[in-house]
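Lab notebook, bench 4. Still working through the backlog of constructs that have no structural model yet. Next entry is a single chain of 278 residues. Request: give me the structure tokens for it.
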Amino acid sequence: MSLATFFKEADIAVLDVRLWVDFKKQHLVLSAHIEQADLEARQNEMPARPSSLNLVADSLQACELTTDWLVEKGYQVSEAKTAKQLEDYLQQNVDQIEIGLAKTHLWQPSELVASFEKNFKLNKSPNLKALDIGCGGGRDTVFLSKQGWQVTAVEQKNKVLIKAKQLASSHGQTVNWICCNVNHPNCLPDQQFDLILVIRYLNRDLFEWIKSHTTPGGFVVFQAFSEGVQAIGSPKNSQYIIQPKEFHKTFTDFKVFIDRIEKLSDGRPLASFIAQKK
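Model written out:
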């Protein structure tokens, strides 16, 4: 692949893993940036697997090491170029130079949350509140915050929450973070929310709490692995597997907009549910 083709491959994202001090001086337009040493800790900022990436690293050795790491994690590296090759290209193509913070990121929110934000528009007052239960690495949290929601995010594992906080900070977002076990009393805030989302996490003990803490006209967005997943992979425990139409039967006082089963690329069935409190 020629340098021109590499640096203009519109459908393949460019991941630049050089040091931040070098990246901010100049980088290719629409490049995402994660320092090579931070890749392991910032996996929540990577795209869904398997994705193809073009790579920029400091040296040939850094290209090889990073490529090996990406492939091990399930990504495909289309092409890798060194910092010197990038510099040579930018000298001849100054219109392709960006300076300072990266304007592109590789991560995406869950498709269900992105679909909700696009298709279920609420009157976006500055006071709309969302609760993300089991927020994990924070992608849905940060996405909603960028759309103007006041987000409270709950996660039990502090080391995971640290990554979510870093993601929010890198995008200039302020989130109310709570590190606690949702099964413990007083973990969840005693207030109502215009949106409560629980993505790829199932805790039936929270259903009644969620009902009572959703504002009238507010929404719930659920996603959980569905019956049949046991034959393909994890989870195996029925405690974490939703039964057919269980969401629908549970949230009877909600108007249901989406109640469907989808399949991940590995074949595991995933139940998606969006409903509005009447």
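Notes after review: The chain has two domains: 3-98, 111-277. The chain has a mean pLDDT of 92. Flag for follow-up if needed.
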